[in-house]
Write a structure and sequence with these properties.
Number of helices: 4
Order of helices and strands: HHEHEHEEE
Radius of gyration: 14 Å
Shape: globular
Largest sheet: 5 strands, mixed
Length: about 130
């Protein structure tokens, strides 16, 4: 059986809430951003999380205002690129004007978070939540 694709490189089963509730509210804007990020990185993106219901978000320790609740965020890693390399490439693309859809980017030991939620003043929201090993 063929996978149901939400965009050229991202399937519904990658984006659906991981708790099994079936929520899949990934927005077209997020999927378009993810496709652009993938083309910039020139690497497959292994999706950790896109859509989350309130219960699963709470269980994951997510913020009550998490962009994942609205299908506006993606957590991912690239097998052959470190999270720092991915973060720097995506942030640089925003600064160069190639990713105007990007609203926020976060760096973690496991990978990178991207979202489409814009800051009121238009700056790129950034954070580094890596933990020492």
């Amino acid at each position: 059986m063929a996978r149901e694709m939400l965009s050229p490189h991202f399937a519904k089963d990658e984006c659906v809430c991981r708790c099994g509730c079936g929520l899949c509210n990934a927005t077209p804007r997020l999927l378009a951003l993810a496709e652009k990020v993938r083309s910039i990185l020139k690497e497959p993106m292994h999706v950790h999380s896109v859509c989350r219901c309130k219960a699963h978000n709470a269980k994951q320790g997510g913020s009550p205002t998490s962009k994942h609740l609205k299908g506006q965020a993606m957590d991912f890693h690239c097998e052959r690129l470190s999270p720092l390399v991915v973060y720097n490439a995506v942030a640089q693309a925003w600064y160069d004007g190639r990713l105007p859809e990007l609203g926020g980017i976060g760096l973690y030991n496991w990978g990178v978070h991207i979202d489409i939620a814009k800051a009121p003043d238009g700056h790129l929201r950034t954070w580094d939540r890596r933990k020492a090993r």
